[in-house]
């Protein structure tokens, strides 16, 4: 029995990590192929802008909806459904005969990914209540890998086959991620043997947690703290992904050098994803770590604003260390809730509202540059967002549980 329980543990670990690997593939495979797709499906500048906003908008919408569905079905069945929806969207969009249909099926694909974003934290809490830091580190690292690989291989695969095959091939990874969930769902050991069943919803580390009270997260300081921490982190990250090459080329760097700096900015997410959750899980209040990462953001932004052509890699490296608040925010979803229902609700609200905030980042950054003709106003906008990030982090980092926001007054 013990051996079979260990097998199930490894099965769920593989399922969570493989699923995390797929959560960005349908997004980052598209930008390198825009010009190639344009040969078959007309993509105007406006359409490209809409396509750039669709991922965060879809993540926000389906982030809001997923916690309501959690009440009606198990987390495992919902993650299977979300993966299937993502696969259908990815395959259907490459068969789309028109640009509007391509965009619609892209929303379907991103919707499946958005639901997966919300479901993974409560799944970690359910199946690995005593290893939340380690599993968060592993699955956030998998998200980082899944963000980088499609961008690297999209063009070579498209050149060897077609852009349709290049886009649809990543649905194969999602299909592989589906297999361990199906094995778990249809295994008699997970459905009929209480000894090998996963941790009950309201059990954490072998202790029965109190039932979660009815929660209206719109009135929860904890939920809003996570929202601003998560949302402003994503706002800054997506703004730099969109505009860093332009900032550097206007400063005199060639496009290849600017591209290398963008790669450096993205690559720093890997060590942060591995290290931050493990370190922060041992801290009662990880806000000091947030202060360090905010300082990295500030140093990097000041360097990029005042001296972008000199010491560029130093400024980009500092800016790339700032988004370490992203894996920390995901860790806090579980560390600031007592039950998997609470984790699901906080995950949906924080990520739904957070991605809504993140949608504004690249757009406002670009508009401020267009209106003023300089990069000063856009960076002031980012500095203001860092203040909101810090305020949200101060709230969510406090050792106070989401359920405490709704506990009856003594």
UniProtKB/TrEMBL annotation:
The keyword Transmembrane applies. Pfam families: MFS_1. The keyword rRNA-binding does not apply. SUPFAM superfamilies: MFS general substrate transporter. InterPro entries: MFS (IPR011701), MFS_Cyanate_Porter (IPR052524), MFS_trans_sf (IPR036259). One of its GO terms (molecular function) is transmembrane transporter activity. Keywords: Membrane, Transmembrane, Transmembrane helix. The chain crosses the membrane at residues 42-66, 78-96, 102-120, 132-155, 167-186, 223-244, 256-280, 287-306, 312-333, 345-369, 375-397. This is MFS transporter. It comes from Arthrobacter psychrolactophilus.
């Amino acid at each position: 029995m013990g051996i079979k329980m260990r097998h199930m543990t490894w099965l769920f670990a593989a399922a969570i990590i493989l699923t995390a690997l797929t959560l960005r593939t349908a997004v980052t495979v598209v930008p390198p192929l825009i010009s190639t797709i344009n040969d078959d499906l007309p993509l105007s500048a406006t359409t490209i802008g809409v396509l750039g906003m669709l991922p965060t908008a879809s993540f926000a919408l389906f982030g809001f909806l997923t916690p309501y569905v959690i009440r009606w079905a198990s987390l495992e069945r919902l993650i299977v459904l979300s993966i299937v929806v993502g696969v259908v969207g990815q395959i259907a969009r490459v068969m789309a005969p028109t640009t509007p249909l391509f965009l619609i099926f892209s929303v379907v694909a991103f919707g499946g990914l958005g639901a997966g974003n919300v479901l993974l934290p409560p799944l970690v809490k359910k199946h690995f209540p005593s290893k939340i830091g380690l599993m968060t580190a592993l699955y956030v690292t998998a998200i980082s890998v899944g963000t980088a690989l499609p961008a690297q291989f999209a063009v070579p695969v498209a050149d060897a086959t077609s852009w349709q095959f290049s886009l649809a091939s990543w649905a194969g990874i999602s299909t592989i991620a589906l297999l361990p969930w199906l094995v778990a769902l249809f295994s008699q050991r997970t459905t009929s043997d209480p000894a090998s069943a996963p941790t009950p919803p309201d059990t954490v580390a072998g202790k029965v947690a109190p039932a979660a009270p009815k929660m209206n997260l719109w009135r929860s300081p904890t939920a809003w703290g996570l929202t601003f921490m998560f949302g402003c982190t994503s706002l800054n990250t997506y703004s730099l992904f969109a505009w860093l090459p332009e900032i550097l080329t206007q400063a005199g760097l060639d496009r290849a050098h600017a591209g290398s700096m963008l790669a450096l900015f993205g690559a720093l997410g890997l060590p942060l994803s591995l290290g931050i959750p493990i370190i922060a899980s041992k801290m009662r209040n990880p806000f000091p770590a947030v202060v360090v990462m905010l300082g990295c953001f500030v140093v990097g932004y000041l360097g990029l604003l005042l001296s972008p052509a000199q010491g560029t890699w130093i400024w980009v490296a500092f800016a790339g260390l700032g988004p370490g608040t992203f894996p920390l925010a995901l860790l806090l979803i579980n560390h600031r809730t007592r039950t998997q229902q609470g984790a699901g609700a906080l995950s949906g609200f924080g990520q739904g509202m957070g991605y809504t905030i993140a949608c504004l980042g690249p757009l406002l950054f670009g508009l401020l540059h267009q209106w003023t003709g300089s990069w000063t106003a856009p960076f002031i906008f980012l500095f203001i967002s860092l203040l909101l990030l810090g305020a949200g982090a101060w709230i969510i980092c406090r050792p106070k549980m989401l359920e405490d926001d709704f506990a009856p007054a003594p």
